[in-house]
Amino acid sequence: MAAVEGVPVTRPRAAPPALLAVALLLLAGCAPVPSSAPPIGGASAEVPRPADAVELTAPPSAAEAAPESCDPTASLRPTAQAGGPTLDRIRARGRLVAGVDQNTYLMGFRNPSSGELEGFDVDMAREVARAVLGDPAAIRFRVLTSDERIPALERGEVDVVVRTMTVTCERWRRVDFSTVYHQAGQRVLVPANSTAIGLESLGGRKVCATKGSSSLAFVARARPRPVAVSVPNWTDCLVMLQQGQVDAISTDDTILAGFAAQDPYTKVVGPRLTAEPYGMAFPKGAEDFVRFTNALLERLRADGTWAAVHGRWLGPPPAPPAAVYRD
């Protein structure tokens, strides 16, 4: 033992041999049992993936080519008639059943404080309820994923879907649409420190979009080809981006604006890649309801209601999308 100045040194006495033997026997009896648990430290926990997240090995099934004459934005001309079989059935029930989202901030989301559904699409659905039933609260919302929108209409589970739904000729074969009530466009969201400048920078890298969306099909067919990652909800994409499981999200700029508002460590990059005109979707053959809604949309564009709803959620409004009719 080294001496420390000013401190007397005391040398320990050696233990008797008998005591040493007893101590060794006690230590041997108390030796720890080998553990099957992994060592503490030195390894990181695996980050869980959202349920049903899938990396596509091929683009979604190609749909039958639309006729060249198809204009998906053209809907049925409004009429002054305020009744019909679909409208009568809704009025007899006393409430409108509307399919909406609860995962897209600013468009259709659940307010964490009140638990209520809010957003641009939700307010537009309430305007439909006001027009049909005289009360914007006479509505029951059905929360749907992108992939559930058309099946819910085909099964008669909802009267209308107002959920960031792009009108396409392929979708017109299964459902009917109103005139366009919002014009969006597909772009890309990446972490703020990413060097990507658009989808063209993401070849071979993971890009997230929701199952059943036109965004996913576009990503899967892009060149140079990214790895398209399909998830049920848009918030799944945001979580995967935050955890580094995907490199980017690509979808409509309205949805990406909500993500950027929620997470300041992200940014939207690149130009608009597509035109994404949103329409309200109806069961196939609900002509009276489509024409009634198109008359409502004409009024909302003209009286400033559309601009007010846009300003409440999406910022200063542009001119509302012009109506196009096919008859």
Automatic annotation (TrEMBL):
Alphabetized InterPro entries for the sequence: Bact_solute-bind_prot3, Solute-binding_3/MltF_N
Superkingdom classification of source: Bacteria
SMART domains listed in its UniProt record: PBPb
Gene3D superfamilies: Periplasmic binding protein-like II
Residue span(s) of domain Solute-binding protein family 3/N-terminal: 95-317
Keyword field contains Cell membrane: no
Keywords of the record: Signal, Transport
Composition skew (Low complexity), residue ranges: 58-69
Region Disordered: start-end pairs: 55-88
CDD domains named in the record: PBP2_GluB (cd13690)
SUPFAM superfamilies the record matches: Periplasmic binding protein-like II
Pfam families named among the record's database cross-references: SBP_bac_3
Keyword Cytoplasm: no
Family: Belongs to the bacterial solute-binding protein 3 family.
Protein name: ABC transporter substrate-binding protein
Species this chain originates from: Saccharothrix yanglingensis
